[in-house]
Amino acid sequence: MNAITLTPGVTYQYDIGKLYSPxxxxxxxxxxxxxxxxxxxxxQAEIEEHTRRAYESNxxxxxxxxxxxxxxxxxxxxxxxxxxxxxxAAKEQEKIDFMESSPPSVELVEANAMMxxxxxxxxxxxxxxxxxxxxxxxxxxxxxxxxxxxxxx
Length: 153
What we know:
Number of strands: 3
Oligomer: single chain
Largest sheet: 3 strands, antiparallel
Structural class: alpha+beta
């Protein structure tokens, strides 16, 4: 008869179409029992670890633990502050790069006052400035202005 190979950590299911000898059945049952006992042992260890952590989180801390906790929090705060500074610098550099890739001046010409104001608002949001000396035409039916690119501070 062929010997059954049992994989550790995996339960073995009986094959309905196969006859098993009593020794094979005992081996399968012992194997499945050991798998279940190992799973129960792991679950019990997890419960004990959770209980230990819950106890430690509620107990008073020693002065060394408070000091270490304060050091950890300060290190996390400094790391977060550095990340924020790097992010702000990257955003500023991105803004400068975008502004440098834009044309130095733009002329807006619109016949409709509402369209002119809408377009003007869009260009101002992109970082362009308007100067009263650069207003070309501002009469009904012809609104024209020259915008200049402003450099961020």
